[in-house]
Amino acid sequence: METDNILFSFRVKFYPPNPFRLKEDITRYQIYLQLKRDLLHGRLYCNTSEAALLGAYILQAELGDFNPEEHIDNYVNELKILLTQTLQLEEKMMDIHKNELKGKTAAEMETMFLKKACVLDTYGVDPHSVKDQRGNQLYLGINHTGIVTFQGSKKMNHFSWSQVQKINYEGKMFIIHVILNEKKQTIGFKCPRGASCRHVWKCAVEQMLFFTFSSSSDVPHVVSGGGFFSWGTKFRYSGRVEREILEDMSITRESPSVTRVGSLRRKSSSEPPTPSNMVINQVAGFNSLPRSLTNTSEEYSTSIDSSTQIDNSSVLETLLEDQEIITPKNFTVTDGAPLIQSIPNQLSGQKHLETTAIRNSGSSLSFMRQKLLPIVFGLFLVFMIIVIVLESDLPIMVTIRKAPEIAAFKQNYYEPSKDFLMRRFIGSKIF
User: Fold this and answer.
1) Which residues of the chain form CATH 1.20.80.10?
2) Which helix (H) or strand (E) covers residue 247, if one does?
3) What is the pLDDT averaged over residues 201-220?
4) Quick one: fold of 19-117?
5) What is the pLDDT averaged over residues 17-37?
6) Residues annotated as region Disordered (predicted)?
7) Torsions phi, psi of 67, nearest 5?
8) Is-contact 376 368, C-beta < 8 A?
9) Which of 75, 91, 312, 359 is within CB 3.0–4.6 Å of 71 for a Cys-Cys bond?
10) CA-CA distances (angstroms) from residue 225 to 89, 202, 407?
11) CA of 270: how far to CAs of 179, 274, 357, in Å?
12) Considering the entire predicted model, what is its pTM?
């Protein structure tokens, strides 16, 4: 059986707040490799001087000391280190590599790289494209510190996990409930698609549970997302939390040696297109959104049980079973008299069946009335409340409509239904 080549990638999901609390050198080396990849793909975003310094650390770790016989002209030009690698940045990297890092080993450079990278605002951040309530384009990041928003390269807001009380979503609206200045506030961010919003919600919940709970036994078995008017999504967290990992650092094995392999890519080299290296948008700041915009499907590495079933109508063709038309093939009329004489008996039996059916239907209708009337009345009350909240000009109703959940419901459900009914019933009478 022929199959396409499958590419497996080892990636870091939970970036440690302090990489130097990790016990083994090989684990820190793996964090270094991930951060070096993040720098290349634009996720570890920083200013020009910081980018030049990090790039120089990589040069020293990969190439060793500057050698005028080997490192001639612009030797950095053919290497892929930064996402936006200008001539000015390359010259700055070469200057630092030549004059400031002589004699440093690869292990020392990796340590210096980690010390610099772990204090950046974008450390461990996987940027998600969102819009705020005013329609401004933002990038939302989630890491061990909490939820961060960026506009271009500028950090706009930071909501620490201690401030976040609840996380949910409604349609395309990702919603966080926070306490700011001792006041509860609800803040919403609009995602490009509903699947993108669910993905952001799952990432946020997983990071919050991992970094804030003291024990995995305290983590809720199932965390439900979605608002009142959506089917919601169920998330099941599995594994240990950060505090348990830090407390269980009694590794008895002999620390494995680190085998460093040159991993600098040439600009002419090609690599398979993976979700981690697809450049999607070219904008200031986060120039690429390789993970957040491509991993919006329901395929997710953590065990997730979604109550929202995937619509397979676009994948699976409808299977039509052949319906056999049953006809009285063996029915033959040999004589008209018996057939005519049998009609009164059939009518008599039919009247008896109809009388029994009417009695049974009368009792069932009475039962249905008792059960259905309260339900219908309740639905009618809910409908009237919705109309009053969304249509009334009372100041209190105007305030309620500003809530992100209500605004999302009005935009995604109420307005389309209202327009459809207006066109269907009122529009047909006018035209």
Assistant:
1) 19-117
2) helix 242-247
3) 93
4) Acyl-CoA Binding Protein (1.20.80)
5) 93
6) 257-279
7) -125, 110
8) no
9) 75
10) 44, 9, 18
11) 48, 12, 76
12) 0.63
**Residue 422 DSSP label:** I
Give the chain's end-to-end CA distance (angstroms, integer): 61
Q: With 50 as the cut, is the pLDDT of residue 259 above it?
A: yes
pLDDT band at residue 227 using 50, 70 and 90 as cut-offs: low
Record: fold of 128-248+281-310: PH-domain like (2.30.29)
φ, ψ (nearest 5 deg) of residue 377: -65, -40
If you average pLDDT over every residue of the chain, what do you get? Answer: 76
The token duo for 178 is 């926070």
State the sign of the Cα–Cα–Cα–Cα dihedral 47, 49, 52, 53: negative
Q: What per-residue confidence (pLDDT) applies to 304?
A: 35
pLDDT above 50 (res 355): no
Mean of pLDDT values over 272-291 = 41
pLDDT at 54 over 90: yes
CA distances from 99 to 60, 96, 104, 189, 302 (A): 11, 5, 12, 46, 46
* Strand ranges of the sheet holding 154-160, from the earlier edge strand across to the other edge: 154-160, 146-151, 137-143, 128-131, 183-190, 173-180, 164-170
State the span(s) of the chain assigned CATH 2.30.29.30: 128-248+281-310
Pairwise pLDDT comparison (415 vs 427), residue with the higher score: 415
**CA 383 to CA 388: how far, in whole Å?**
9
Distance of CA 248 to the CA centre of its chain: 30
Cβ-based burial of 57 (10 A; exposed 0-12, middle 13-18, buried ≥19): buried
Residue 367 has a pLDDT of 56
In the block, tokens 């239904």 appear at: 417
The per-residue pLDDT for 13 is: 93
pLDDT bin (cut points 50, 70, 90) of residue 17 is very high
